[in-house]
Amino acid sequence: MRFKHSLLVLAIAGALSACGGSSDSSTPDSNTGGDNTGGDNTGSTTTVVTEGVITGFGSVYVNGQRYGSDNAAIAVGNSPAADEAQLRVGMVVTVAASASDNGDDPEAEQITYEESLQGPVAFIDTEAEQIEVLGQTVIYDDLTEFEGTDIQTLTIGNLIEISGYINENGDFYATLVELEEDETEVKLKGNVANLDTDALTFTLGELTIDYSIAEFEDMTAEDLAEGLFVKVEGETYDSDTMTLTADEIENKEDNDLDENADEVTIAGIVKNYDAEAGTFTVNQYNFALSENTEFEDGTADTLANGIIVKVEAVLDGEQLIAEEIEFKARNARSKVEGQVTDIDTEAMTFVLNDTTFTVTSETQYEDESDLDERRFTFDNIEVNDWLKVISRQDEEGNAIALKVKRINEEAREGEVKGRAANVTEDGMTVANVAVTFDDNTEFENDDGSLSLERFVALAGTQNAVIVEVEGEYVDGSLVATEVEIENVSGDGDDDDGRPDNTGKAEFKGAIESIEGDLIFVNGKELRFTGDTEFELNDENVDLQTFYNALEVGTVIEIEGVWVDETYIEVKEAEVENEDDSEE
Fold first, then answer.
1. How many CB atoms are closer than 10 A to CB 78?
2. By the 8 A CB rule, do 460 and 423 touch?
3. Fewer beta carbons within 10 Å, N or C terminal of the chain?
4. 415: which strand partners?
C-alpha cells in the first residue's frame, strides 16, 4: 500500500501533534474483553503502523496488540467507508495508530483490509490441504478461518475470497477463506512475469493476464515490468485458457512509510532473504538486520525464506531496521473439543479434558455458540463452556492455545488430534480424550489403509506419533470412524522429500477428460478397481452405473493411493449429480 497517497497518512498527520516516546507493542495487554480506550493522552505520542491477522475483537487485536477502534476510519476492499462489523477474524489488515506513553492501548486512526485473492475454486486437495483458485495454490491449515463455508462443504465453482500471505513461489497461505456471494469479480495480487508488450499480456503464477483494456492506478501501462507487484481485477475469466481480461491494474510495489511512522510491526512470510547483506522482505516491506536485532522463538540462523515471522522495526531514513523478529510457529500439534472445568485468570489458563491451556496475546478467538459474542476473548470464557482448541507445545511442554472457539455441545465435530498414548486394539488416548475402536474404524497413514494390527504396531511402539481422529461421542468416549497417522509412513521410511505423486490421495475436482476407462482430474489419472466403492447422489451404486453418470465437467470426490507415482488407484469415489437427483 502506498501510505503517502492514502487516508492512512492523513489520519496519522491529523491525529498527532507530537512525536517521541515508545509504545510497547511487544508486551501488550492480554486479549481481554474490556475496552481500555479514551484514557489520559497528555503524554508524548508515537505513530504505530502494523500489518497482520485480526485475532479478536474488543476493540481490534492485531499482532498481539489491542487497538482502540471506536474512532477509526475503516476501509474494506473497495468500500472506503466501512465499519468494524465488516471486519472478520483471520483478515490481514493494516492499522495506523497513535500510542501514548501512559500505558493505554494505541488508538487506531485507520484500519485497512484488502483481499489477497478472489476467484472460483478449481480444485480441492484435502490430503495436501490446498485449494486451487485462478491457477494459484492456496494453502490452509487448522488455524485458517472459514466464513460461510468449510473445507467439507466448499465445492468446485464456489467463488471465495482469500486473505493471507503470499509466499516467494507465488503460493498463498490463507488466514481466512470466505464464501463470496455478492460479487462476481476476480482479483489477485502477484509479481508480473512473462511480460509481452506486443500481445499486451503477462502472467501471475499460472494465470495469463490480458491487459489490453485495463485501466491503471498509481502507474501506467509503460510502468509494467518483470517482478512488479500488482493487483489485478476483472470480470472476464476463461478457465479453459486460464486467462483473465483485466479491467484494472494497480501498482502495489510501493510501501512507502510516512517519515512520522515511529514503530512498524509487520507479520508475514519471509522473501528475498540475503544472509550476507542482512536484508529480507515481508509483505513487500524491505527490512535490514542490525547487530542489535533480537530474535524470539528462534535465532538468526532460523531466518529463511518461506517462514512466517513478526518483525518489529523502526524507520531509519528510508530503511526499516528490524529490532525484533519473532518466529511464528503455526504447526498446531493438537486439536480437541471439550468442556471447561477450571480457569485461572492470573495465569491466563483454562483446563479442558484435564489439559491446562495457556493463552497468549496472539491467541485467536471466535464464538460460534448460540451466544455469538463478537467480542469473545479469554475474559468471556466460563466454566462449563464448550470449546474447540487448536494448540502447540512450547519448549517446556506447556500447551499454548493458538485458536479458541466457543461452540454448542451438539455442534461438536468429533475430531481430535494429538499424540497417541496407551494404544491397544480396543482404543487409545489422544490429547487426554478416550478414543474407542470398533469394527467400523478405518486406519490409514500417508501410504493408504492400515490394518488394526499394523496401526497398533506403528502407534503403540513409536514415540510421539501424531494421529488425527474422526468419530462420534458415545457415553463420554469418542468412537473412532477414521484414524490417520500424520507423521509416520507405512514402513517407517523418511517422508522428507516425498514427491507429490506418492502416498494417499484425497481431493475434489472437475473431470477434465475421459479416455476409455481412465478419468483425468487436474492432470491426475484415476483408475477404478473391483474394490472401489462408488456413491452417486448419496446412494451406493455399481461401477457401470457410476461410470455412466460421468462426463467432462462432472465434479468428483475421491480417496485413493498413488501407484508407481503414475496413477491413482481409487478406493472411494463420490459424485453429486443434481440433474439425476431431481429426476
1. 12
2. yes
3. C
4. 470
